[in-house]
Amino acid sequence: MIPVQRTAAPQATLQLLDRRTVTVRTTGATTAAARAEWRRAATPKARIRELLRGMAHGAERCMYCLDNYGTDIDHFQPIAVAPLRAFDWPNHLLACSRCNSNFKRDEYPCDAAGNCLLVDPSAEDPADHLLLLPSSGQYDALTPKGAATIRVFGLNRPDLVQGRRTAFVMTCAILRDWHAHGSAETAEALRQSPHADVLRSLERLDAAAAGTVLRDLPTAEALARWREVYAAQG
Length: 234
Description:
Helices cover about 50% and strands about 5% of the residues.
């Protein structure tokens, strides 16, 4: 998981969404009312999806796993929990069907004070709560929010762990090639690749940690140069 920059929705879109919220409220503000309104909201959903696609990493990747294509509009706070947020633009993220329907579903864990225990990548930096160990492909939790996020989204499910391990090997190889040849196309391909959290985790390594994780000088030198050129661009 990496940060996502939320796009400001056009005023016309916000007004369209607000009208749908009014309808949900006037028909009872229940989960059933919100779901019924959402099912028939073809134009609002098309507008939301267009905005989310523009925010997504690479080839419209899921904003949670960064591996699969983002097929679903996810309600970060589920309709079952907050019917009146069904059409709230800040409550929408792009997700793959596996993260959304097989794992997260209607889960929305909160602490004793009522604060959400899931990382919203459009509102905070996931790295404050999650530590990716790139060579192993595993996420470790830095906070209770990180632990809940790993569990609810299945971030350590076997296919994702294996995918990150493969991405780590490929990222190191591409970094060395980029460092040797300085190709802008190579750099852009790496930045747009699946499992962008692997590259981001490497960018955050200090020199000592990079030496331990990367295990070879050419890759460490390539990463140091990469950070100088690209990391500041996000």
